Amino acid sequence: MILLFNPRSARWKHRVPLSLLSLAAVLEDRYDYEIIDGNIEPSAREKLAATIREKGIRYLGVTVMPGPQLVEAITITQHLKAEFPQLKVIWGGYFPSLHSKVCLESGFVDFVISGPGELAFQKLIDSLENRPRVSTTDAHMVPPLPYHRVDMREYVGKTCLGTRTISYHSSFGCPFLCGFCAVAAIYKGRWTGKPASAVADEVLWLRDRYGINAIEFIDNNFFVGEHRTAEIARRLRGSGITWWGEARPDTLMEFSDASWREMRDGGCKMIFFGAESSSDDVLAVMDKGGTQNADTVLQLAERTKKFGIIPEFSFVLGTPSDDVDAQIERDIRYIRKIKTINPKSEIVIYLYSPVFFEDAALLQRAFSFGFEFPTRLVDWLDPVWQQFDLRKNPKTPWLEPRHIERIMNFERVLNARFPTISDIKLKPWQTGVLKTLGAWRYKLRFYVAPWEIRFVANRLFRYRQPEIEGF
After folding, report:
1. pLDDT value at residue 142
2. Over the stretch 125-141, which tens digit does the pLDDT of each residue have?
3. What is residue 137's predicted lDDT score, i.e. its pLDDT?
4. Is the pLDDT of residue 451 over 70?
5. At what angle do helices 68-83 and 44-55 cross, to 10 degrees?
6. Which residue has the higher pLDDT, 42 or 418?
7. Cα dist from 158 to 153, 203, 211, 310, 350, whole Å
8. Tens of pLDDT along 236-284?
């Protein structure tokens, strides 16, 4: 029997465990399995141990993302392997895909699935059980997900998109090879999407079955094909579904106005864009590819305003450079320019933390500054490395504390002047207070020591940061 485990993650705690359901889909009617979601189960370690003991579990499959989820994955796996030494532990997901060697050398992870894991996991179990393998035509597509195997009530929540929102995957991978991106490191430029008709049909089924009215398309790159995107939007028009997805700026700028209207009328409320940097030179070092440059994002800010779709622009500040100060100030001016063009633009700021993508020029530059990854899995439990993958203070050698402080202080002032719409718990009067606190600082470009904003936003209002907590 197989046990599938999703460790706790503060960021994605209300998301449907799609990685586990995808594994379950290829196991359904072939193997007995159980699912335990650490985000829902308050005593995951005890529940796992009891299930292993009572049901004779032979295989434990763990999906592992970098960041907070990794901490629980390490600690719980260690304890379970010590208590049940015959248990075969199989890790999959972004972290083990990028750091396979360090996982396998830990002493408590028996197998690693690198890359898309559903069919590879099934084949591994078949091999260990000496069972004939099941052939498939597409390594990236899986059978319909067995939603009935989890309590979907736990994953339907209120967000800025709608009162009953869930997450959904309509495609896998991305056709681009950005040097700072884990998706590029794993999928190597491959992208596979479900047909538009299948996506729309399943979304409407979720609406009818679970009463949802909003979807987070958590694809790595939802908007790869214009025709597919427009058809999905067209099929969802009038359905009562609003939605969000991720895109590249240059891809969306090539969409026709007709497709943009289809998207708007079909329920698209927000789009997340990787703006990354104000510098074309930095974009080139990032291997951003395509036709994106600094002007692309400015044009996109205007175009999203025209069609009434809210853009989220993410920036990766603090890349390895001998001129970090100038780079940071240039990015700050650029972000302010975007807000001038389209004040409704949401700005998401990350600090660059290297991704293990050996061929990436950006990683090689990080190495040249003295950066190194941990050589032991347990070293990732160090608080420094726990913060690393949150991309807020990665402790990289080319950034000094004053650089971090400058970026974070600007972010605090920006978020006060323009509170995010994703924080639906903020009342209008609280939003007004934040805007008042941030207005004079933002106008005067005075970002130093915004203690009053930190106190009100963090202590009193507990301001939500979507880049850390999601919707």
Report:
1. 72
2. 999 998 887 655 454 56
3. 46
4. yes
5. 40
6. 418
7. 12, 17, 12, 18, 25
8. 999 999 999 999 999 999 999 999 999 999 999 999 999 999 999 999 9
Q: Which amino acid is at 151?
A: D
Residue closest to 354 by CA, chosen among 331, 340, 374: 374
Beta bridge partners of 316: 350
According to the model, what pLDDT value does residue 139 have? 44
State the angle between helix axes of 401-417 and 324-341 in degrees (0 to 180), rounded to the nearest 10.
10
Residue 331 has pLDDT above 90, yes or no: yes
Q: Which residues make beta-bridge pairs with 63?
A: 92
Query: Which residues does 416 contact at the CB level (< 8 Å), separation at least 6?
Result: 434, 435, 437, 438, 441, 442, 450, 453, 457
Q: SS3 string of the chain?
A: CEEEEECCCCCCCCCCCHHHHHHHHHHCCCCCEEEEECCCCCCHHHHHHHHHHHHCCCEEEEECCCCHHHHHHHHHHHHHHHHCCCCEEEEECHHHHHCHHHHHCCCCCCEEECCCCHHHHHHHHHHHCCCCCCCCCCCCCCCCCCHHHCCHHHHCECCCCCCCEEEECCEEECCCCCCCCHHHHHHCCCEEECCHHHHHHHHHHHHHHHCCCEEEECCCCCCCCHHHHHHHHHHHCCCCCEEEEEECHHHHHCCCHHHHHHHHHCCEEEEEEEEECCCHHHHHHCCCCCCCCHHHHHHHHHHHHHHCCEEEEEEEECCCCCCHHHHHHHHHHHHHHHHHHCCCCEEEEEECCCCCCCCCHHHHHHHHCCCCCCCCHHHHHCHHHHHHCCCCCCCCCCCCHHHHHHHHHHHHHHHHHCCCCCCCCCCHHHHHHHHHHHHHHHHHCCCCCCHHHHHHHHHHCCCCCHHHHCC
Closest C-alpha among 417, 429, 419, 397 to residue 464 = 419
Residue 10: pLDDT band (50, 70, 90) is low
